[in-house]
Amino acid sequence: MANTIMIGAMAGAAMLLTGSAEAPIGAQVQVALQKRLPKTKVDAIDCSKVDGLCEVVAGANLFYVDKSARYLVIGRVYDMETRQDLTAAKLLALNPDMLVGGAAKANATPDAPEAGAARAGARVTTQPAVARTLDVTRLSSKGAIVWGSGTQTVTVFSDFHCGYCRALSQALETMNVRVIERPISVLGSREIADQVLCARDRHAAVRAAYAQNPVPAGAKCDTSGLDENEAFAKAHGINGTPVIVRSDGAVIEGFKPKAQLVEWLKGAKS
């Protein structure tokens, strides 16, 4: 009887030790992320799935960091032994109705050749938190990166670390449209946004940033407009990217293939 009690006590102690050893890892990562990504609201951290990596859910975004939160990984994680896409499994668990940021079904169509680029990032489509219409006309030009030309204009709230933003940018490049890009830092891209805003050739800088190439250095400039973008996004529930605003204020969230964008733009009210 005594032996049974002792074994039970030891097992209970072992469980407590295991739990206490695991808990601080997530807590330490949380603290480090708050320092490195102060404007990103982290909803969940799981360091138990992949050795050396912690899975982070932040609003409508899913990414990974090492346990020191020094290195941030954007993309997909595959278990080669079980042949399982761990990122897709998590996205599906977060939102059973959609897979891979609501773009998977659209990306599967033959009309979306730019879909491959979108898969470089992971975005979760949650229930719409952003208003169906937004008035962006009062935002100052200081935080706007304008490129492209055409009779139609779209405003895009984007993050240079977002794979779907990169795919959207590539789609818009092929369209007759003027783009007002307003970067926000959902995935810790503020430093890159500063560089792009201050670049001599902003359009070239946008391309370099999305290609993960060095952004050509420019002179220091006023980047307070990016703070205005961040404040607007926070005030209007924009916690994931991309968010696209039409000239009449209509809003759509997430990556959309070119054909769908063209039809959506046709619906703009003059």
Strand content: 15-25%
CATH superfamily of the domain at 129-266, please?
Answer: Glutaredoxin
Strand ordering within the main sheet:
7-9-8-10-11
Which segments are poorly predicted (pLDDT under 50) over 5 or more consecutive residues?
1-22, 97-128
- Assigned CATH class of the domain at 129-266: Alpha Beta
Number of strands: 11
For the residues shown, what is the average pLDDT?
80
Molecular shape? globular
Strand/helix succession: HEEEEEEHHHEEHEHHHEEH
In CATH terms, what is the fold-level topology of the domain at 129-266?
Glutaredoxin
**Structural class, please?**
alpha+beta
Number of helices: 9
Taking Cα atoms only, what radius of gyration do you get, to the nearest Å?
21 Å
Oligomer: single chain
Terminal-residue CA separation: 84 Å
In the CATH classification, which architecture of the domain at 129-266 applies? 3-Layer(aba) Sandwich
Residues in helices, as a percent range: 25-40%
Largest sheet: number of strands, sense, barrel closure? 5 strands, mixed
Protein name: Thiol:disulfide interchange protein
Main location: periplasm
Function: Required for disulfide bond formation in some periplasmic proteins. Acts by transferring its disulfide bond to other proteins and is reduced in the process.
Signal peptide: 1-23
Which characteristics define this entry?
alpha+beta, 9 helices, 270 residues
Account of the 3D structure:
The structure is a single chain. With 270 residues, the chain is an alpha+beta fold. Helices cover 38% and strands 18% of the residues. It has a domain of 138 residues: 3-Layer(aba) Sandwich (Glutaredoxin). The protein has a 5-stranded mixed β-sheet with strand order 7-9-8-10-11, with helices on both faces. A 4-stranded antiparallel β-sheet has the order 1-2-3-4, with helices on one face. Helix 6 runs antiparallel to helix 7. Its main location: periplasm. Belongs to the thioredoxin family. DsbC subfamily. It is found in: Periplasm. Keywords: Disulfide bond, Periplasm, Redox-active center, Signal.
